[in-house]
Design goal:
The protein has 186 residues and is of the alpha+beta class. The chain has three helices and eight strands; from the N terminus they run H-E-E-E-E-E-E-E-H-E-H. The strands form two sheets. It has a five-stranded antiparallel sheet with strand order 1-2-3-6-7.
Length: 186
């Protein structure tokens, strides 16, 4: 098990555009994906982009476990997924603000407008091309992680900086600490 250090906002690794992966079947990509998964498992995280562990490659690892989905939501659990060279495209102009947090900005929450319906294409570690659509929370998660590949952190996407707060200063209004079921449904 190789748990890697997640770098924080201000680290140069989070500012650049990650390089495309030439060969998604290469052993170093498999090793990187395993380290990313091990890191997420250690902290019970949901998603991680390679730049967050100081690797400037276009790789994202994520999952949505059942325990993270609120009762009544339509979203089904999503198994561990490794995306190599992901590309995301909005399928609707509609955006919805959603509360986000990030492993590279611990202790903070911010309300970020995100597209509610997106298409994502990527390669698997076997080199297969995959194309999917995502809505709601799943779409937001994909946008958040892909932003890391282009040097964006979620505060850079916020339209109202009054909606950026430390968790310790927030009052649980049912919207922040436990995602609303409709945020998971789109």
């Amino acid at each position: 098990m190789a748990v890697r250090r997640i770098v924080l906002m201000g680290n140069e690794s989070l500012r650049g555009v990650a390089a495309p992966v030439d060969d998604p079947t290469a052993p170093d990509i498999a090793s990187l994906a395993k380290d990313m998964r091990d890191t997420l498992e250690e902290i019970d995280g949901v998603g991680l982009a390679a730049p967050q562990i100081e690797v400037a490659k276009r790789v994202v690892v994520y999952r949505v476990p059942k325990f993270r989905i609120p009762a009544g939501a339509k979203l089904q659990p999503i198994p561990w997924t490794v995306m190599v060279n992901p590309a995301i495209e909005p399928l609707s102009r509609e955006k919805k603000p959603i509360w986000e947090r990030c492993l590279s900005l611990p202790g903070l929450y911010g309300r970020v407008p995100r597209y509610v319906h997106v298409a994502i294409s990527f390669q698997t570690m076997d080199g297969q091309r995959v194309e999917r659509e995502a809505r709601g929370y799943h779409a937001m998660l994909l946008q958040h992680e892909c932003d890391h590949l282009d040097g964006y952190l979620y505060p850079m996407r916020m339209t109202d900086m009054d909606q950026l707060s430390f968790v310790s200063e927030l009052v649980d209004d049912g919207d922040i600490f436990s995602y609303q079921a409709d945020e998971f449904d789109g």
